[in-house]
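Morning, I've got a small favour to ask if you have a moment. It would help a lot if you went through both lines with me. I owe you a coffee for this, so here goes:
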Amino acid sequence: MSNTQGQTTVNMPPILIGTLIVLMAMGTRATFGLFIQPMGVEFGWSREVFSMAFALQNLTWGVGAIAAGMMADRYGTGRTVALSAFLYAMGLVGTRMAGTEMELYLTAGLLVGLGQAGTTFAVILPVVARSAPASYRSTAMGIASAGGSLGQFLVVPTGQVLIDTLDWTGAYWVLSVFLACAIPMAYYLRGKPSKGTGIELSMRQAIGQALKHRSFHFLFWSYFVCGFHTAFITLHLPSFAIDGGLNASTGAIAIGLIGLFNVFGSYWAGRLGGKYSKKYLLSGIYALRAIGMLWLMLLPLSPWVIYVFAAWMGIFWLGTVPLTQGLIAQIYGLRFAATLSGMVFLGHQIGSFTGVWLGGKVQAITGNYDIVWWMGIALALIAGALCLPIREQPLAQPQAVAQPT
């Protein structure tokens, strides 16, 4: 499957298959919090052990996304997705077999993180973008991003049912088979970006050009904030609810609401990104996240306060993804979009690592998460400001001519 930037028709199979693979990968990832209690009871592992495994997973995912993006651009998306899905499934099997903390870090942290690198946004969204004309590209990426949230909404309760009926060990076996189904599906994503007719940059030159461009760094650090928010809230919101005197189901329902509302949020972010300035939409999303966190901090904690917070945050949860990925394609082109997306996504995952680790550390020291919530509010405003000076115009092709071959 070779795509050109000048196509005028929508190639639906890669969009649908890409959306389904993101649903599977992100949905399974969202179930990991469900295993903390049963595995902790069996092995005597504390919350900090699982927080570290999750933090390592996020960091490995970020670093691995760069390698996965390079592999997709050079050898094809299908091979990259198939290999990553295999590593993801083996990581789940390894997590099921883990009996020590180090084994948990190597499987749930390293192997699963590597698997996520090639089955999620950095690799999937560029092939989705190449499958649609420019007028529909942002919407197509919004649909694929919504798949991640739909997975969170559908797979998490399914995972709980599996744990209740098959125990946590059986649930891991089922999830590993579920992920392995993505291996044959990768066939429909085969191919790599086609070259244009003019003089083009090499991969090294494209990376160097992006690193010299200020907008690339603005995208990197604003994405850091996105990762900080989403990872911290995903892992620690249920504990925050329990610490506030609410029952465990309140936090679980809240995580599900985030996923449900973001199905619409991601789709509309992508659709609006095809009509309006993506950088202003991004800036607005970050600012509106700050309002949601202020709501949670300033009102007395109750189930309905958390549910409203979850719905509000869900609207803006992964809406940053199609907009950020869309800006990368818009500014730097599609030829090495997977590679550059992986590099920017590393910022997201450094933020994820920081949010997960800092949340656990602050809670252990102070007994609450208040400091991290206020940090999240401040970072949201900073990220909104970082998006404003982004230059959305495509980099001029003559720069490629000036580069040595």
